[in-house]
Amino acid sequence: MPWEAVVDLWRAAGPEDRRALEQKLLEMLDLDYRNPHADFVPAEEGIPGLPAGMQPDDLLCLEAAAFAATHLGLPGVQDRLRALLREPRFHAVYPRLRRLHLELPSLLAGRTGEAGSG
Fold first, then answer.
1. Going by C-beta distance under 8 Å and a sequence separation of 6 or more, which residues neighbour residue 74?
2. 97-112, pLDDT tens digit by residue?
3. CB burial readout 17-47, b (16+ within 10 A) else e
4. pTM of the entire structure?
5. CA distance 65 to 94
6. In whole angstroms, what is the distance from residue 24 CA to residue 65 CA?
7. Quick one: angle between helices 77-86 and 98-108, nearest 10?
């Protein structure tokens, strides 16, 4: 699901569902998060250098969560992104996240978002 669709889902949700989605987005900003819906790709067929057990779809989740959480201005998102940058394993993954790689400086600049405004 593209990150914009996640934001649309958040906008349409009630308060409880919004809080649950916000929590899930923050959980996804972690190299140990695994997408339960990801197709399994054997290591020899996958992307070299991914942390153990990480699937290509997990990269997409991480990237979408970063953009959606930042767009929504979720509390703690800046800390999560900075923690990823300090994680040695992230440097093997980071170049494969092309859009995040290009736009991370603007995400870390702290754009304000929609969370808490509705």
1. 22, 25, 26, 113, 115
2. 878 877 877 777 865 4
3. ebeebbeebbebbebebebeeeeeeeeeeee
4. 0.82
5. 14
6. 9
7. 120
